[in-house]
Amino acid sequence: MLFNSFAFLIFFPTVTLIYFLLPARIQWVWLLVMSYVFYMNWHAEYALLMAACTIITHACSLLITGAKTTRGRRAAMWSGIALNIGMLAYFKYTGFLLDTIQRVCDWIGIEAAMPKVSILLPVGISFYVFQALSYMIDVYKGRVKAERNLFKYALFVSFFPQLVAGPIERSSRLLKQVTQEHRFDWERTRQGLLIMLLGFFEKVVIADRACMYVDAIYGSWIDASGAQLALATFVFAVQDLCDFAGYSHIAIGTAKILGVELMTNFRQPYFAHSVQNFWARWHISLSTWFRDYIYFPLGAGRGGKFKQARNLMIVYTVSGLWHGAALKYVAWGMLNGVFQVIEGLLPQPKHKPRFPRLDLLLHILWTDFLILITMLVFRAGSLSSALGMLARIATAWNAPGIESGFSGVQALCTGVCFVILFLIELIHEKRRTLTEITDRLPVFARGTLYLLGVLAVIVFGVWGPGYTAQAFIYFQF
Q1: Which residues does the annotation mark as catalytic?
Q2: Residues 172, 138 contacting (CB under 8 angstroms)
Q3: Helix (H) or strand (E) holding 276
Q4: Mind listing the pLDDT tens digit for each residue in 66-102?
Q5: How do the domains of the chain map onto residue ranges?
């Protein structure tokens, strides 16, 4: 069930109404049942995989707690990791592995015919597997106590607002929240609805409209001009932000109405002054997951620049693989790692810049330029296509180009929305929120503004006759 579907507009109010009418002791049971209903809306049979992930990590966590020796604890943890990563690898990487073996055999001249497989990737599997693994590892490390109640733990894994695309929450934050008593609170609901409204604006008005232009240009990149490809890459960078941040905002707002606080997943990434700072602002829940469960255990920056560079490259290569089973994702991850390694090797300025604001702006622009290169690799159909597009941007800037099918009205609407988004991001970068600004208005003016916001999403969004809800980009991961 997509957040931007009419089904969700019926599902969520119904779930919320019944949730607050139920006795406190069974509220969490209702959330667990509805979370599975939400997930089974795609493919009911894949709920069995989520249940298997839940049972395995829960059982292994209890074994870790009950083990008498360090060896037993370690064996239980690694068994849980192996079973879950094995399940993830089968569904996500089997085809990629067989295809890679076939290419290597062809390259070295060995006759081989690898079987062609087509395995449907379960929605959200990468997210809930990582969330479950973090709980089990935290139990092993002694950071949290093992939850004895399997069904309460199952709700932590399956909590529907953040189930299929994050944020990837930690059990220390989420497990107690989802099983606690919550009563309806109007102020909390108002704030949650405003956050959801921002998410719908980002997804329905900006991302889904920008997608039309990006798909047209990237779909015929061989005939597109360099200028069109450069513009489409910029538009995709905004689309990707609005698509994923939009999902996160809807998830955060939805959970807030239910009384659950989810972590911030995006913090104005295109205001970053370095690639490292970009990844401290983009998909924060995943970045911190890799930091805490891979980068730190590898030794982080201990042992000198070489080991730090090695660990960074491992983390971002794995991050690339997490995003998808294709060489372009591996290259994308490694490129982000290389940029950060280079940043770490550059000498730090000994004196403060004479014009600090100008210096910051130049760093932001340079960082965004580097990120745009990685975005092109990320969005391209393949690694070879990405290299071809980069070459075409450099050599065919003034080529005639192609017809994008994007009307002048569409372009104007998109441009205006980009400006609005920039202003919202700028307000947030100044450590202020839209709620803080609107709360200063009289009640009538504030209500009118909210109503106009809803109407703007409906009127200027891509909703309308024949509308088909577009899946969020990160559903494929």
Answers
A1: 323
A2: yes
A3: helix 275-279
A4: 988 999 999 999 999 999 999 998 888 887 787 777 7
A5: 6-184, 186-346+356-477
